[in-house]
C-alpha cells in the first residue's frame, strides 16, 4: 500500500520547473548547487532560491561526451550535458552556481562550466585530518557570504542566518523522523518513495509547504502502521542502500531490489540521509556552526572517511538491516575503492553482506543487475 500524500511528492520536480520560472519573472535570484557540501542556508539567507542541479538522466550524456571523456562518472556527464545543451530549466534560471572541490571529475567539469555561468567554487579540503579543518571551512563560508552579498546586493546578517538555520534544522529533524518510521518491520514506505521526498526537497522553494507535507506524510504512515498496512511483505529482506548519489529518474537499482522482493529501508548516500543526520548548532555563532556541520559530511571524497563507517554501523543496527547494496557509478573511483573498506567493515563488525553494483544511467545492464540482486536476496532469506 502507498500513502496518498505521496501524490504531492510525485509532482515536486515538474512543479519546481514552473516555480523557478515564476520566481525569475518576479525578479527573485536563483542559485544552483550540485552537492550536499553546499551550505544552502547562506543562499536562502541572501534572499535567493537554492536549487539542486545534479542530473540523473541518460539523455544529455551524448552531448556531454562531445567535450568530456566517456570514462567519467555519469552524474558529472549528465549534469554537464544538461547545462550546456540548455535543456535543464533549473540551470537556465540560475543566476550563478555554488560549486565545490570534491572529486576530480567535478572539479574539472566546473572549470568548463564556468564558461557558461558565473560561479563560486568552495575549496573543500579532501583531508579529514587537517588540523585547522574548521577554520578552513569557516573561511570558505565567509567567502561564499561575501560572494552572495556582492552579487546579490544584499547583506547576510547573523539574525537572518539564524532564522534560516532554524527552518533547515526543523526540516532535517522531520526527514529523520520520516525515515525512522522504516525501523518498523515490515516498512511503511518504499526506498523509492523516500527518494522522491528527499530528492524532491531541492525543487520545492516554499520550505513551510514542504515541511507541512512531510508532517502529513508522517501522520499518514503512522496510521498505516497502526492499521497493519505496509509497503512490502513481512518476509522481504531489509536492505540498506549506500554509495554514490541516486536521483529521481535513476532509481534503477532500488527499483530492481524492490521488484525482486527486497525492502529498501533507507539510503545512506548523499541522495539519502547523509546531509540530514547532523544539525547545525543553533547555540553557536551561525557562520561557525555552518562550517562545523558541513565539515562533518561523510563523503568518500574525504580521506579517511571514518564517519561513513560509524554512520553505517549505527544504521544497520537501528534499522535491523539484513544486507547492504552499494551503488557505485561507473568511473567514480572514490566510492569504488571505498566499497572494499565498507564491505570488510560490515562483514567483520556486523556479519552483514554487501553487494556492490557498478552501473551508469543506461538501461543496458538491467537484466544483469536483476540476476545479481535476486541471488543476493535469496542468500539473505
Ligand atoms: S557523493 Fe560526495 S561529492 Fe558527490 S554529490 Fe554527494 S557529497 Fe557531493
Ligand atoms: S558519484 Fe563519484 S565521481 Fe560522480 S560526482 Fe559523486 S563523487 Fe564524483
TrEMBL record:
Family: Belongs to the FldB/FldC dehydratase alpha/beta subunit family.
Phylogenetic classification of the source organism: Bacteria, Bacillati, Bacillota, Clostridia, Eubacteriales
Keywords annotated in UniProt: Iron, Iron-sulfur, Metal-binding
Cofactor(s) the record lists: [4Fe-4S] cluster
Molecular function terms from GO: hydro-lyase activity; iron-sulfur cluster binding
Organism, as annotated: Thermanaerosceptrum fracticalcis
InterPro entries: FldB/FldC_alpha/beta, YjiM-like
Highest rank taxon of the organism: Bacteria
Protein name (database record): 2-hydroxyacyl-CoA dehydratase
Entry keyword annotation includes Secreted: no
Amino acid at each position: 500500500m502507498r500513502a496518498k500524500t505521496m501524490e504531492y511528492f510525485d509532482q515536486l520536480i515538474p512543479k519546481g520547473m514552473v516555480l523557478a520560472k515564476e520566481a525569475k519573472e518576479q525578479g527573485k535570484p536563483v542559485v544552483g548547487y550540485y552537492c550536499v557540501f553546499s551550505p544552502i542556508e547562506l543562499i536562502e539567507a541572501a534572499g535567493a532560491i537554492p536549487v539542486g542541479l545534479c542530473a540523473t538522466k541518460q539523455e544529455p550524456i551524448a552531448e556531454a561526451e562531445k567535450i568530456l571523456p566517456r570514462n567519467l562518472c555519469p552524474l558529472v556527464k549528465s549534469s554537464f550535458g544538461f547545462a550546456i545543451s540548455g535543456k535543464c530549466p533549473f540551470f537556465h534560471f540560475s543566476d550563478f552556481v555554488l560549486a565545490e572541490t570534491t572529486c576530480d571529475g567535478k572539479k574539472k567539469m566546473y572549470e568548463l562550466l564556468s564558461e557558461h555561468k558565473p560561479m563560486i567554487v568552495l575549496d573543500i579540503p579532501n583531508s579529514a585530518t587537517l588540523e585547522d579543518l574548521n577554520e578552513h571551512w569557516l573561511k570558505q563560508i565567509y567567502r561564499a557570504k561575501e560572494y552572495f552579498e556582492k552579487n546579490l546586493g544584499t547583506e547576510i546578517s547573523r539574525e537572518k542566518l539564524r532564522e534560516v538555520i532554524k527552518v533547515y534544522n526543523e526540516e532535517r529533524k522531520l526527514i529523520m523522523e520520516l525515515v525512522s518510521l522504516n525501523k518498523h518491520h515490515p516498512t511503511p514506505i518504499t526506498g523509492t518513495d523516500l527518494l522522491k521526498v528527499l530528492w524532491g526537497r531541492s525543487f520545492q522553494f516554499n520550505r513551510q509547504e514542504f515541511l507541512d507535507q512531510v508532517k502529513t506524510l508522517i501522520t499518514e504512515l503512522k496510521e498505516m502502521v497502526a492499521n497493519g498496512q505496509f509497503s512490502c511483505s513481512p518476509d522481504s529482506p531489509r536492505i540498506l542502500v549506500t554509495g554514490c548519489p541516486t536521483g529521481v529518474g535513476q532509481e534503477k537499482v532500488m527499483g530492481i531490489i524492490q521488484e525482486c522482493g527486497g525492502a529498501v529501508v533507507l539510503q545512506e548516500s548523499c541522495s539519502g540521509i547523509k546531509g540530514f543526520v547532523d544539525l547545525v548548532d543553533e547555540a553557536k555563532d551561525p557562520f561557525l556552526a555552518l562550517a562545523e556541520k558541513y565539515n562533518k559530511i561523510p563523503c568518500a571524497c574525504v580521506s579517511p572517511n571514518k564517519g561513513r563507517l560509524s554512520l553505517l554501523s549505527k544504521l544497520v543496527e537501528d534499522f535491523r538491516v539484513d544486507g547492504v547494496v552499494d551503488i557505485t557509478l561507473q568511473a567514480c573511483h572514490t566510492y569504488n575503492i571505498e566499497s572494499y573498506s565498507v564491505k570488510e567493515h560490515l562483514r567483520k563488525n556486523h556479519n552483514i553482506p554487501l553487494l556492490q553494483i557498478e552501473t551508469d544511467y543506461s538501461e543496458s545492464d538491467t537484466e544483469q543487475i536483476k540476476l545479481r540482486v535476486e541471488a543476493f536476496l535469496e542468500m539473505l532469506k
